[in-house]
Structure formats: C-alpha cells, structure tokens
Amino acid sequence: MRLLDALEVTDRDKRLKVARAILYLAQGVFDECDTEVDVLHWSRHNVFLLYDMGIFTALLELLSMEIDNSQACSSAVRKPAISLADSTELRVLLSIMYLMVETIRVQTEDDRPEWKAARETFKNELGSPLYNGEPFALLLFTMVTKFCSMNAPHFPMKKVLLLLWKTILFTLGGFEELQEMKVRGRERLNLPPLPEDSIKVVRAMRAASPPASAMELIEQQQQQKRGRRSRRPLVKQDSLDTYNERDPFKNDDARDEEEDPEDTDSGIEGEVDPLDRDVIIQPPPPPPPLRPPTERVNFPKGLPWAPKVREKDIEHFLETSRNKFIGFTLGNDTETLVGLPRPIHESVKTLKQHKYVSIAEVQIKREDELQQCPLTLQLWSRFNHFICVSHILCCVLCQIALLKLLLAAAPTSKAKTDSINILADVLPEEMPITVLQSMKLGIDVNRHKEIIVKAISALLLLLLKHFKLNHIYQFEIVSQHLVFANCIPLILKFFNQNIMSYISAKNSICVLDFPHCVVHEMPELTAESLEAGDSNQFCWRNLFSCINLLRILNKLTKWKHSRTMMLVVFKSAPILKRALKVKQAMMQLYVLKLLKIQTKYLGRQWRKSNMKTMSAIYQKVRHRLNDDWAYGNDIDARPWDFQAEECALRESIEKFNSRRYDRNKNGDFTPVDNCLQSVLGQRVELPEDFHYSYEMWLEREVFSQPIQWEGLLQNP
Fold first, then answer.
1. What residue ranges do the domains of the chain occupy?
2. Residue 229 DSSP label
3. With 0-12 CB in 10 A as exposed, 13-18 as middle and 19+ as buried, what is 643?
4. CA atoms within 13 Å, Cβ hemisphere of 124
5. pLDDT tens-place string over residues 425-448
6. Residue 244's closest CA among 574, 482, 582, 480?
7. pLDDT for 588-629, tens place per residue?
8. Quick count: other Cβ atoms within 10 Å of Cβ 167?
C-alpha cells in the first residue's frame, strides 16, 4: 500500500524507483529465493496480490500519462539515435503489466478459488471499456499506430506487441477457445457438428520427408552410373532423416499453442508403412448421429480429414449433369433428379452425405436476404458485438502498422533510411567496443526481431480467426485491407530465405534467461560460448512464427481465385516447396494447402515433375470431392474476372457496413417529415465561413430564382 501511494508522487525519479520495486515483487523477489521454482511460485503469489491491491489500474494511469507525454515524444523525434534510456519508464510499466496479464491468464491446478475469481474479473475488466472509455487493447493499438506514424519513435515496440498479443489472447481466447466457440455457434444455428477436431488431427499428424531437390537428383543419378546400389531411384534419401536421428520434435515442451504434434520419423515423403497406418493416423470419431443410421458416412482409413462438399459444389455438379443428359437446368434445385441416370443419383447422395455448411455461408445467405427485404425481415439476432465499428477501423489501421513492423523485422529486409526503427528498445546508449560486446548485441538484436515477428504473426492470426467467427464480412473487411497493403508478397518475401537456417537459429543466451540468471551464479561469457549457443536443435519461436504466417496466407487466399493468382504471379511455388524441408507436420500441412490451391494454375509440366509433392497433398490435405485441383480442368481455373471478384466482395462489404453501422440507417426508407415546425426546428450543420457569404447565397439561390407557385396546384 505504501508503494501504491508512492506511485502518485510528482517526482519522476521517485516514481520510477517505486515502479522498479513493484517490478521486483512481480518478478518473485528473486534475491531471496534459492531455486527457479521458488521464484516462479512467489512471482505468481505476488502478481495476484498486486492485482487485489489495484496496482494494474494505477499502472494504467501512469502508462496513459507516458503515452500523452508530448515533451518526451518531441525530444525523441528530434534525437538522431534513440536508445534504451529513452524508454526506461515505459519499459518498467509494460514489464509489470505483461507479468500480471500473462501470470493471471495461465491457469494451474493448484490455483486458489479466490485466484480463479480474480482471473474472471480481470478478464472482464480488460475486455470492457473501463479504461478511459475503451478496452485496454485499444490503448495498446493506439501505441502501435503512433509509433509507426513516427510520432513516438521511443515506444518499446517489442513489449507493447507482446502485451497486446497476450491481452487479446486472454480477453477473446486462444485457438482451443475458438474451437469451442465454433462448436457452440454451429449448435445455435442448428448445423451438424464438426466432423473432427482440427487441433487434435494436426497434432496426430506425422511429418514427411521433403521432396528431392535438383542437386540431390543429380547426385543420385551419378551414384547409379557408378554402379552403387540404390534402393529406389529419384527418391528423397535421408537428407533430413539422418539429420533427425534424434527427433528434435519429440521433446516438445508445448510452450506455444498448437505447436506440439507427436512427430516421429516417417521415412519417404507421403508414404506410411501399412502395418503402422492405423497406429499413426487414427480415423476421427464419428459425429453424433443427426441423420438416419443408414446414411452414416464411413471415412476412408488412413486419411486424416473427413471430405467436405459445399452446397455450391452440389449445385454446379447437378447443373453440369442436367445440361449433359436433359438439356436444361433447374437453377439452385438440388432435390429434383428426374431424368438423370442412376450413377448421378448415387453421386448426388454421396455428395450430400459429405455436405458441410459453414457458419460463414449461413451469415452470407442471411445478409443477402436482408439486403433484398430490408423492411419485411427483422434484424438477425445480434452477433457477438465484442467489436464495434470504431474498434474494427482501429484494428484495420493497426494491422497495416503491424505489416510495417513485420517488414522491418523480417530477416530478408534491407535497412533503409525511411524505414521504422524497431531497435529503439534494444540498443544501449554506448555502442559496444569489444568483440564480445558486439557479439552479444548482435544476438540481442536478432532475438529482438524474432520476438517481434512472433508477436505480430500470432496477433494477426488471432484477430483474423476471431473476426471470421464473429461475422464473415468483418473478416473480409480486414483481410481485404491486408491484401491491398501487400500482405501476400510480404509473407512470401519472409519465406524467400534459407528457412532451415531460420528455424534452427540460435539467437539466445541460456545463462541470461530469466529466472536462471538471477538464481544461479553467472558464468563468464566468452566468444566461444556465444558462438555455440544453446543445446536446442530448433528455435521453437521461429517455427511458431512461420506456422502463423502460413496460416495467415491460407486465410487470405482460401476460396479467393484472384488472390490465388497473386501466389502464382509472385512465383510462390518454389518458395513454398523449399519450406517443405522443415520436417514438422503442422508447417508442412499449411505449405501443402497453399500449393494445392494453385496447382491448377501451374501447368501440367509442374505437376508432372512434382509428383511427390502432389502425393503429399493427397495424403495430408482435406479432400473436396469434386475439386479438380490435380488436373486443372475446373472452370475456376480460367484466369478472368478476378478484378470483378474483388469488386463484388467490396460491394458486399460496403452494403454490410452501411446496414450494420451507418448512423443514417435505412435512409432510403425513412418516412418524410411533413411537419413545418419540426423541419424548421432541425439543426443544420453549416460551414464555418457561411455567415460571411450567406447574403450572396440568398440572392443567388432564393431571390433570383423564379418560383412557379401555380405548379403546386396542377396534377403531376
């Protein structure tokens, strides 16, 4: 309580000293602990104590004051080089807030009942407009946009982004909560349950060896010429299998969500031992029977995903069949099968058994009905309004800013004079003078960039998934802005590097990690120990970032042929194929998805020379029963009207916005006010300079205009 009172003193130095004391409490009073477990225990205990005492609200007021500190902003703008010293107060405040948000967010088995109650209260507070009339996340969004507009270059962006990510994760929920929300949403709309839990399916997948490169094929041919015994020609031979004799992915510590597939060595790409098939990939459990037992679908053994078919695909199939056998069509009728041969009946039955209706399709259909009959249909039951229009616009602006930060933090980016300086909170006041100091700073800078990429990728993916579940057109608003801001080529540029080197980068110094560094005696750092790095073969942080970026790319391009053509135009196939070298099941799955949607555009020669990749797509990616992805004969493969596709989407988004958020809602259908007193009593907004020229306006628009009053008496 004494520290809480001292936070309100006017002396800046005293206030900083008190904030450091609170940070020491939140970090677990490590100077009085003997083990790392003790530090973590007391850190958790103290964080809940600090929250009960109202420390977070006091810190928020200080943070708002620092954000609005125009003097600090203007001095930082004028400085030629910004260092750690320019953001000391901000970093201390953000560190305490991050520890509080992350510690309270994570549940443990031995949590006390009052801690569980405090967690729910804190979660509601963070998501409610209790802080200056807006949620806490919006304040952090404002910091990001202010930094990217060069108005506050001293903001510590790494800490802001991490805190923003964890706040969104806490208030809206992570991937598992999203899955539960999706299940509940389908129940509310009376839709059949999901055929499988996608998180569990991906975790059960096994990684495959990547396809052979041209150099490896040449080496194999040379070995054959020398007469060496080769088990199978033109097959990938253990380049990653020998590297993974001790499978690095078996020791997954499940630190990041959806990053822990039970990955084991699977030999040749796309091939599974028939004896092991049932052990490796168990078929998903059958959904609760909503249909008669005779129509139960038996999924093929060995394939991880249940096939899906859209209503649109069934309509297209029947339209083609009717044109062929009858000579006319029946529009969207999927029930009438008169005149069609028996095999077509069986095909339609199979397609209907696998029909999948998404929440997005129901929302789009409902919006179309509301546009056609705005007066006769009542507004649909309110969807989850966790985000109002101002919040959506703020998120859109912030996501453009996030792309700028991602570009600055990407390993393939070259430093430019006009680019954003993201190293303000890692560079010291005095630059290093020894080789050891330079090496340590280099590792710190690389680690700093990796953490920024991780936070941005996770934040973008989380927002896109929540927008899509909330309403499809909210998702389309944000995704279209991302596409127009060149998000697709930016992600491809990120992957256009030696991705194996990025995944296995060792930009961390284990002895400096918290709480190890404050409990154990610090060994002497040498250039050799810094070069050796840690003992981990892979950097989970970078793997997590790569998977997130691939998933964002999938979100932006799914069912969008114009954006798929962007992947083709930017020559993404060889870039993505190189990413298959990372032997991790989840990452390979999303790479194969991106390759699948563009195979029809890549030509027969590409498909012919990449049959192993095609085989892996067949085995790992979900099947759409009448998707002609492998041959390119589909009508959707014709590259025209792609501009019209984006324009039609834009038009639907604008109609949605005007109906949901326009202040003058249904302006065309508002009754005319015929009361003279009411009309004359309305306040009309006039320009500021109108009173200077109103006499001229009266002369021109009123007095000089002849008025034919008798026209009112004539019938029209």
1. 311-355
2. -
3. exposed
4. 5
5. 898 988 888 889 899 999 999 999
6. 582
7. 999 999 999 999 889 889 999 999 999 999 999 999 988 888
8. 24
